[in-house]
Amino acid sequence: MTLNELNTLSAEEATTWFEQCCAAKTWIYQMVEARPYSDIDALVSQAKNAWAKCSSDDYLEAFTAHPMIGDVDSLRKKFANTKAIAAGEQSGTASASETTLHQLKEANQAYLDKHGFIFIICATGLSAQTMLEALQARLPNTTQQEISNAAEQQIKITLLRINKALN
After folding, report:
1. Dihedral sign of CA atoms 31, 55, 80, 91 in order
2. Which of 24, 7, 149 is nearest to 82 (CA)?
3. Catalytic residue among 50, 66, 131, 135, which?
4. 53, 77, 83, 135 - which has most CB atoms within 10 Å?
5. pTM of the predicted protein model
6. Which helix (DSSP H) or strand (DSSP E) does residue 32 occupy?
């Protein structure tokens, strides 16, 4: 997809395209409505500005579209339109030891139980061990701190997805 093609998609097609980058409906609506974009910098700027205007509920909506780190089954079952992207983002779990994967699963569940949403991290380029250490470090935070931390990670993920989806 080129930027020009994105600019000329129907609203419905553009909604579907932006949805692969971030699942928050408020963010998607703002991105679709702000078209046309003069260049990639304008698109990135709008993505950041639209995200900054989102509420905690919007952030939580975006988080629901993510598979749990290392959970291959949820990658298969949930949100097929982001499956390939998320799998690539989480490639650091592919070579992890069984012990690390087990610890990730347990820590992820503890995080979900405590905060009510899964652990969100921009996993691109990170090893499973690094993700586990980040998860363990963030687990003691308050839920409000974690919504903020996860939202910061989400916009990084979103921008990476935009850049991957545009050629």
Report:
1. positive
2. 24
3. 66
4. 135
5. 0.85
6. helix 25-33
